[in-house]
Amino acid sequence: MPVEPAIHPTATPDSTQSEPSTGLLSPQFIDPISSPLTLKPEMNVEGATVSELASHANDTRDIVLPNQTEHVSQIAIDIGGSLAKIVYFTSSNDIKGGRLHFKKFETEKIDECLDFIAELVEDAKHINNRNEQVVKATGGGAYLFQDKIAKRLPGITIQKEDEMECLINGLNFFITEIPYEVFTYSETNPMQFEERTQDLYPYMLVNIGSGVSILKVTGPDEFSRISGTSLGGGTLWGLLSLLTGAQSFDALGPFTEMLDLSQNGDNRNVDLLVGDIYGSDYSKLGLKSTRIASSFGKVFKKGVRQSQDAFHAEDISKSLLFMVSNNIGQIAYLVAQQHGLRRIYFGGCYIRAGNNLSGHPVTMNTLSYAINFWSKGEMKALFLRHEGHLGATGAFLKHKPIRRARHSFSYSENFTPQIITGNPSNVYGVLEQTKLELRSKE
Ligand SMILES: Nc1ncnc2c1ncn2[C@@H]1O[C@H](COP(=O)(O)OP(=O)(O)O)[C@@H](O)[C@H]1O
Ligand SMILES: CC(C)(COP(=O)(O)O)[C@@H](O)C(=O)NCCC(=O)O
């Protein structure tokens, strides 16, 4: 596998992408500037908790910052090939502290997303009583939609930030600062939280967005993109819509419709298993009869062309999900092994760990299983509840805060994960659906 050269934060930005400031009412676009990674947040994150408040099922939960008493009018956006993610802060009128909010829009609906940001900017202007506003932008769309952003957000300074730097910056923030954020997944214990740690290097990040980027991170200012694959979230989304007729990813939008399908599916109707070929386990090679020998291998049977209607959308969805996740899991293992890395963080909206109601256990299970199986338990697959917002959070943290303003929110009860009893497979759902707030024991 070719190893690409290290990208250092000090790398000179591509000046062909930059656009000069065009006057008072035009936004300024400022290209990525070199800045240290792993910024210690300028915000007070002491006592930070993951909140119960998500306005609807497709939202990622807020992070409550009870000790961030000063308002910071910060907005950051990460515009990817599939989704645009936004992170912003609001402070409370009546209660001490504030919240980090995490939103996402389909990149196709970039206009809606920019309308949302325009409202945030307007709000911030009123509260701050000042016109100056900076929006941090990362991801390919920060370049692709430069003109559109300029038109929709006149007078705003858009500071572009490097996507990979932001991913790591955001991930480091979640690992080091946010309790009950990082977890391992297993069928018996679907959300086993990791302790926050300052001892995080080296690690590998597998960011599963539209495509997959694999980064090796060895220190606060040291990382390189060691691999990637085009078989990622966009592949799943595209093939799902092509083969199942479902239109989107979510129950509230079309992607969950597709993923929900997969939950009732049986991939054995589509995939060819070892047992279908051998009639039993292939014990000599350690291959169980239930192992997928060939994804979609049952579709083309003995030279007979099958019609698409011969297969259920549910089964096709499950098979696709296994196919993409297994492939990423195996590539991740091989790359980690090649580089001697044992801690593997999986990020990107593909994982859907932090989705309020419909996080996807099958994906996490498949990735965890692959890493565990191939590494014989030597490596650890780690997930995050804000998996899709690593880049936007990293960009957000690069703000030099402009202070003062407010919005309102309410607190609710505290919650200790250890109190969950009963069927462990319910824990995941309980955590995501409960109207309680996770709070660190400290
Ligand atoms: N609501 C959703 N709509 C579309 N895709 C979703 C949704 N939730 C999860 N996904 C998956 O996440 C992928 C995008 O992940 P993301 O990290 O946002 O990547 P990108 O930065 O390339 O947009 C999609 O290709 C799809 O597989
Ligand atoms: C080009 C990208 C970095 C863009 O990031 P994304 O919007 O997919 O999150 C990513 O899609 C990618 O790394 N694709 C795989 C390219 C490859 O290594 O073959």
Automatic annotation (TrEMBL):
Localization per record: Cytoplasm
Main location (coarse class): cytoplasm
GO MF term (any one): ATP binding
Reactions it catalyzes: (R)-pantothenate + ATP = (R)-4'-phosphopantothenate + ADP + H(+)
One cellular component (GO) term of this entry: nucleus
Biased composition (Polar residues): 12-25
Keywords, comma-separated and alphabetical: ATP-binding, Coenzyme A biosynthesis, Cytoplasm, Kinase, Nucleotide-binding, Transferase
Any one biological process term the GO annotation gives: coenzyme A biosynthetic process
Region (Disordered): 1-27
Biochemical pathway: Cofactor biosynthesis; coenzyme A biosynthesis; CoA from (R)-pantothenate: step 1/5
Enzyme Commission identifier(s): 2.7.1.33
Gene3D superfamilies: 3.30.420.40, 3.30.420.510
Signal peptide: none
Protein family membership: Belongs to the type II pantothenate kinase family.
Protein name (Swiss-Prot/TrEMBL): pantothenate kinase
